Amino acid sequence: MPRAIQSIERAAAALHVLGAVAEPVPLGELARILDLPKTTTHGIVRTLCDVGFVEQQPETGAYSLGTGLSALGRHLDPHLLRSRVTNWADGLAARTGLEVQVGVLRGPSVELIAHVFRPDGSPQRLRVGELQPAHATALGHALLAWSPSAARIHELELTAYTPSTPTTGVALARAMRQARRLGWAGVDGALTPGTAGVAAPICQHAGIGVGAIAVVGPRDRVLQASGAPHDGLVEQVVGAAQATAGTLRDVL
Amino acid sequence: MSGRSRYVAALDQGTTSTRCLVFDHGGRMVSVAQHEHAQLYPEPGWAEHDPTEIWANTLRVLPEALDVAGLEVGDVASLGIANQRETTIVWDRSTGRPVAPAITWQDTRTADIVSQLQHSPQAGLFQEVCGLEPAGYFAAPRLRWLLDHVPGLQRRARTGELAFGTVESWLIWNLTGGPDGGVHVTDVTNASRTLLMDIHTLEWDRRLLDVLDIPEELLPEIRPNAQVYGTCTVGLPGVPIGGAFGDQQAALFGQTCFAEGEAKCTYGTGAFLLMNTGSTIAPSSRGLISTVAFALDDQPAQYATEGSIAVAGALVQWFRDALEMISSAPEIETLARRVDDNGGCYIVPAFAGLFAPHWQPDARGVVVGLTSYVTRAHLARAVLEATAWQSAEVVEAMVADSGMDFATLRVDGGMTSNHLLMQMVADVLDVPVERPLVSESVSLGAAYAAGLAVGYWPDLEGLRANWRRAAMWEPTMSEGSRRRGRAEWDRAVARTLDWAAEA
């Protein structure tokens, strides 16, 4: 068994002390309780402040638990994500003329949490709540590639929908690696022939994709003959994802 | 209009901030800049803004919006203005300085003046001439208050050295030169909210001015919504000002509700539902407001009926902040979706009495139907349903007043990202509910007016083609469920009555 890491033990002890006391604790008091030199204690609480787990009172300089700690166990509410993404999703649809989908991972599937119609006046149905197989759509690839549960891809049932559906763990893992390298995922007809999508992850702390946003449409509206997305499309999708991520920073 | 003028700008002067949005020919937003201004509450019930701060913010947001998109002044074909309605400003025409802070639409200091008007022999005249019952939210009682309370103002008002206006008048006057040749105008929609304009002739009414003892020398000239009023000398120098609108009418126009029976609702803290009634002024027996929808140059005015819901998103905020049931407003949908129905629970948010169409000031809010079965998820549903049922009450009153067919509702505002609520609205109204791709309906309406005035857009049909559907909710509720729910809502409403009176 590897040796316990002393600095982590000490940081945990400091958090326990701050959590057990109702009022903010001055540095000297904290050092005394932890039985550590003031300089060592200061280094610990400064680091914990930087990551948001501890807060320092501006007036007294005393320390207390930070809001980052209570937010740790909470995952992002999908409806909160929808309210933050809507402006960017609308703008993306307006500029590209394509349908926009926003999804989150639900087990082996992508659940659509927001959907903007293709802005051409044609009759369309709101698809919020629908599930897509994650291995066969651009949204799914972006979500899997930026998910810590990417190991899960070997547990997915890789149903073949079209000849381009990745049906082996190796093929899907390759697509994940490529998406991570590029910063976006493109999928051409893997669920429905003739339909293509380009997706980018909406990343939060430590680069975890809490959602993804995609433009979806007829192949020739999304991709050039070479198979590469039309000029500027990737930048628009990635820009919308990053702008949305920016609005989430104050949430957690 | 120069050949390279590819955009139209809109100035949206709202209650909390001043924004400039730039739109392209397809009605797509290409840029936005925004600055907030201070809310001043010097006494209980008073709510003021500093007009000089609003003007300074205007001069900041105009160039900033161009910078964001890398545009120059020459790229802008026209400027339109949408503004918070009924907020009242009086200024000195020679110095350009306001004589007092702006009294905003939220301010309630004119209650006594309004009460006198309501009990005066001329009360009926207001309804007949303006289509409005005297009430605290219109501009003229605020002007009367200023004339009564600012020393020397009544005397100076008669000499013509002072100017009165709602916010668009103040901004247009300043943008076109201020003391040095500024144009003193208002538009028909803002003027229709003063209590001084004849809604039929679209002119100031001599009799109403006399009732309130307001000198005509103070008043701006009333103009159509889409017309070049003048040219900016500052802000966007050389750009024509081609339109102005009160914000809710701007949203109706931005949603392209140009024809009789077309309606929009803006779901925010409160909700504002306006329905185009064409050339008909629909007098209301149910407390709705008849108002001008829009008037184009050389064309007869189009009218609208307006019903407002005081507590819509505000009930979600109450659920979040006062009851601490959720940590952010959007999470109410997550909570409400845990259950399939309201569990028999209804919430009627008559926090300050019941408004349209009931008008019961002594009512107070209730939560009814509580049993041990009811969880906070049922309460969350009841919170959202309250907005849907209030919408239904307003629409029913509009249909009853106007006799018009109500086929779809176009929606905008922050609450439209709540799909459960939008589905409920479609269900209880039994019509499709549509959300446009450009959610900034207020600014878009002002931009459309400004663009029409300079020929940037040819006509209303061209604008209609710009409207794009981003989402639509179809009604799915059975007729039986709707009738049952409606009856239960009515019983819940009945339990709010006469509470404050008995306290």
Write a concise keyword list for the protein shown above.
heterodimer, A: alpha+beta, Arc Repressor Mutant, subunit A, six-stranded antiparallel sheet, two-stranded antiparallel ribbon, 9 helices, 8 strands, B: 503 residues, Nucleotidyltransferase, domain 5, seven-stranded mixed sheet, six-stranded mixed sheet, globular
Q: Proportion of β residues of chain B?
A: 15-25%
Tell me the overall shape of chain B: globular
As a percent range, the share of strand residues of chain A is 15-25%
Average pLDDT score of chain B = 92
The name CATH uses for the topology of the largest domain in chain B is Nucleotidyltransferase, domain 5
Helices and strands of chain B: which structural class?
A: alpha+beta
The N- to C-terminal Cα distance of chain A equals: 34 Å
Q: Largest interface here, residues on each chain?
A: A-B, 23 and 23 residues
Low-confidence stretches of chain B: none
Helical run tally of chain A? 9
Could you describe the 3D structure shown?
The complex is a heterodimer of chains A (252) and B (503). With 252 residues, chain A is α+β, with helices and mostly antiparallel strands. Chain A has 2 domains: 6-70, Arc Repressor Mutant, subunit A, CATH 1.10.10.10; 78-248, GAF domain (Beta-Lactamase). Chain A is 40% helix and 19% strand. Chain A has 9 helices and 8 strands. Chain A has helices spanning 6-20, 27-34, 38-50, 67-70, 78-96, 138-145, 169-182, 219-222, 233-248, and strands spanning 54-56, 63-65, 99-106, 109-116, 131-133, 185-188, 195-203, 209-218. Chain A has a 6-stranded antiparallel β-sheet. A two-stranded antiparallel sheet of chain A has the order 1-2. Chain B has 2 domains: 7-248, ATPase, nucleotide binding domain (Nucleotidyltransferase, domain 5, 2-Layer Sandwich), CATH 3.30.420.40; 257-503, 2-Layer Sandwich (Nucleotidyltransferase, domain 5), CATH 3.30.420.40. Chain B is built from 17 helices and 23 strands. In chain B, the strands form 7 sheets. Chain B has a 7-stranded mixed β-sheet. The longest helix of chain B is centred in the C-terminal third of the chain and has 27 residues, at 376-402. The model of chain B has no long low-confidence stretch (mean pLDDT 92). Classes of the chains: A alpha+beta (252), B alpha+beta (503).
